[in-house]
Amino acid sequence: MADFCTGPGEETRVLWRKHAAVATLAKHAAGSYRRYPMKPLEPVAAALIAGIDPAQMLAWTQAWSAINTGTANLAGLASQAGILASALSDLPGEVALAAPAPVEAVTADGKISERAHGDHLVLRVRPGALRRVLLTGHMDTVFAAGDAFQDQRWIDAETLCGPGVADMKGGIAVMVAALTAFENSPDAALLGYDVLINSDEETGSLSSAPLIAELARGKLAALTYEPSALPDGTLAGARGGSGNYSAVVSGRAAHAGRNPRDGRNALLAASDLALRLKALEHDGLSVNPARIDGGSANNVVPDNAVLRWNIRPRDTAAAERYADALPALIAEIAAAHDVAIHLHGGITRPPKPLTPEAERLFALVRDCGAVLGQNIAWQPSGGVCDGNNIAACGVPVVDTLGVRGGAIHSPDEYLIVPSLGERAALSALVLHRIATGAMA
Q1: What is the number of alpha carbons within 13 Å of residue 59 lying toward its C-beta?
Q2: Which of 238, 277, 314, 323 is most buried, judged by most C-beta within 10 A?
Q3: CB-based contact 110:304 (threshold 8 Å)
């Protein structure tokens, strides 16, 4: 295996040829990244940005990516939390672990069980400051402990492929480096901040949602370190919402040959519900019936089924329209099939509109990018993240301040390495501007 700190070796050059499509995409993305001449920086800002060490950031990213932190891998998450706590300990303030909130899950047979989650990492700095912001990231990935995608490989001299390098071990490195640089500014004393690195973002942040809401309270703004929406650095602006649901359908078993009419087919009712849910779709709402569990032998009318689905409302009005329609639909299906239906779940990520306050924060990020020679733009996104939860608390948030990269949630996930330093400089300058009154 190549030495991760010295660049690609012979084994990696072989992998380049095996992953030519990814290499082409990454090079195209890097080529489309537009730079502009840097404007003169005020001396304090120039000094804090000069302290950023991209080599250290790359070393962090590679070391953290080497730890499997799939959301269900509690041992891996605990190891990662300890290492991140050490990295954050150089900052002022108190680092602590926060226990996950209880989360219920519906099993395949329709029973309710508690789902275990890892602890969340919190740093609180200058809680008494008049100006305070929230910075968030997540340590979990979508790659389970047994996933085949565990190793890193260099695609080219500036592009690293590996589990979580973009989403979001690289983003955490950007956050830590930006805060470290910011603390070297004499203006740092003007700004307080909380840092949250949770362990369950990839599964909806159900065990960290109360903590997100608590930490968001009273903040001027929030910065979240998901990877950029596009490899060229474009940010995600407005976001739709997301909800996950399970319907447990209870019918009545019977012999499929002797007395089928005495049965109440839960599987059939769940299928009917799936079709009717899909019919609720419109331009502002997508509905994805994803899975049905249930049934047994072919000669038994199934008496139990579990339907799971996801919705994506584009805005609050679409979410409310769906919420109004769902109870009547459930009741109608239950009556038509003479079954009982128990609904679980709901909207876990509310839609995130681009409010005037959010537009002001985006403009600040854009202006800081211009000073650094970075072209910062934003566009709507169909994806969701913790930025949705923060915005629902009334706090303006830019939630894609992490690295440039792409192919996230796939074995081809990659990081454009120069973006580590670029994004750290951007965040450090944004923090400096907020500290000196830009969002007051």
Answers
A1: 8
A2: 277
A3: yes
Structure tokens at 275: 């079709």
What are the angstrom distances between the C-alpha of 287 and each of 269, 278, 290, 308, 319?
18, 6, 9, 11, 11
Domain boundary among 315, 349, 383: 349
What is the C-alpha separation between 427 and 64, in angstroms, rounded?
Answer: 21
Identify the pLDDT of residue 249: 98
Residue 288 belongs to what H/E stretch? strand 285-294
167-178 pLDDT, tens digit per residue, is: 999 999 999 999
With beta carbons less than 8 A apart as the criterion, state whether 52 and 173 touch: no
Q: What pLDDT, in 10s, does the model give residues 371-412?
A: 999 999 999 999 999 999 999 999 999 999 999 999 999 999
Rounded alpha-carbon distances, angstroms, from residue 382 to 155, 237, 254, 358: 28, 10, 44, 17
CB atoms inside a 10 Å sphere around CB 424 = 28
First to last CA, the chain: 50
Parent domain of 143: 10-103+112-239+352-435
Give backbone dihedrals phi and psi of 398, rounded to 5 degrees, phi first. Answer: -110, 120
